[in-house]
């Protein structure tokens, strides 16, 4: 019963805080406060020029959540064509997308400790996704980010929001002189699609063979090819289920 009392006492506080939170874009006057927050939240040291860029350059989507004028959370993202992605991120989209196809990279998403677990991170992410899925941003086909492999809180958060793990990035981060592993996570939007896997190719081949008329294709060859593809598909499904 004590758990029910605790929830009853805490819930109104969370709701009142949520109602008082406001969103606004970052500006040059926020550099000092944003720098302080990022140094508290993230183990990576950013140069001063980075803070100046995200608070003044229009190519960044830099949104702050404020409570009584105090910044309690922020999200920073950048739109870029896939041709300008780093090598490790170059295969986010299917091969038929042109180099000019846009993707959004989440550089930072953080919330002050006392304001966590009341929906502020979700509010910031929802605002970003709403912007990226608007009619004017239909050419943006994916949203992606990098995260430490040991940051289980962040991993669960993004997985709940339908981001999928894309790549394991060994020794991706250098933190306090030590190499740390990371992951890339991606969410496909506006009809965006990932590169085809071997399973996708096998499924496509199976569908093509199934549609062929036996009279247009020697029956024995048709049956043999179909059986081979079906066995390969079954094996692929089994391997996927074992690896999951």
From TrEMBL:
Reaction catalyzed: L-lysyl-[protein] + acetyl-CoA = N(6)-acetyl-L-lysyl-[protein] + CoA + H(+); N-terminal L-methionyl-[transmembrane protein] + acetyl-CoA = N-terminal N(alpha)-acetyl-L-methionyl-[transmembrane protein] + CoA + H(+)
What EC number is given for this enzyme? 2.3.1.259, 2.3.1.48
Family annotation (InterPro entries): Acyl_CoA_acyltransferase (IPR016181), GNAT_dom (IPR000182), NAA60-like (IPR045141)
Q: What class of enzyme is it?
A: transferase
UniProt superkingdom:
Eukaryota
Q: Name one GO biological process term.
A: chromosome segregation
Q: What are the alphabetically sorted keywords of the record?
A: Acyltransferase, Chromatin regulator, Chromosome partition, Transferase
Q: Which GO terms describe its molecular function?
A: histone acetyltransferase activity; protein N-terminal-methionine acetyltransferase activity
- Residues annotated as domain N-acetyltransferase: 21-201
> What GO CC annotations are associated with the protein?
Golgi membrane
Entry similarity comment: Belongs to the acetyltransferase family. NAA60 subfamily.
Supply the name of the protein. Answer: N-alpha-acetyltransferase 60
Gene encoding this polypeptide?
106057091
